[in-house]
């Protein structure tokens, strides 16, 4: 710093992000020239939500770490573990923060298990906490939404409630590979009471009320 003598270096710059930089460029939240400079090679590392087979062993691993940090052995009750694992493996568990979310979740459960055993009440509370966390993130972060689609939504005369709900649905849809998967996550309770749970059709009709198509969401 402060020298007039040039210093040369030979290195590769490796950048990592959990954002869709191309979408951020379109939205104006990331510099296009910087994206062009760093976009030489791209590698996609699957998110935790796309590696469901890694969830169970990482629950055990994070539980051991939490027990070490707390200085006591912590374990799940059988029913509590089955309930937590079922949620963790479900489409409704988006794990937006990847392993950071899982690590924090297990640490909270272990800390609150005063007798060293994580019970169903703690698990139910934690599931609710995660759902609220991810719902808040969905509402706050609309960067990944196609700017043209976002402008189309903003141009409609919608109540704030309807607009926020629609943005929430669209953001969730973006994290799923197809309409059927997104529908299962959105209608995860009501679909159980239907003889024929046509989640794709229900989602298509909901989006259609606002003139939104699946292609626009994924485009």
From TrEMBL:
<keyword id="KW-0067">ATP-binding</keyword>
<keyword id="KW-0547">Nucleotide-binding</keyword>
<dbReference type="GO" id="GO:0005524">
    <property type="term" value="F:ATP binding"/>
</dbReference>
<dbReference type="InterPro" id="IPR027417">
    <property type="entry name" value="P-loop_NTPase"/>
</dbReference>
<protein>
    <submittedName>
        <fullName>Nitrogen assimilation regulatory protein</fullName>
    </submittedName>
</protein>
<dbReference type="Pfam" id="PF00158">
    <property type="entry name" value="Sigma54_activat"/>
</dbReference>
<dbReference type="GO" id="GO:0006355">
    <property type="term" value="P:regulation of DNA-templated transcription"/>
</dbReference>
<feature type="domain" description="Sigma-54 factor interaction">
    <location>
        <begin position="1"/>
        <end position="111"/>
    </location>
</feature>
<dbReference type="InterPro" id="IPR002078">
    <property type="entry name" value="Sigma_54_int"/>
</dbReference>
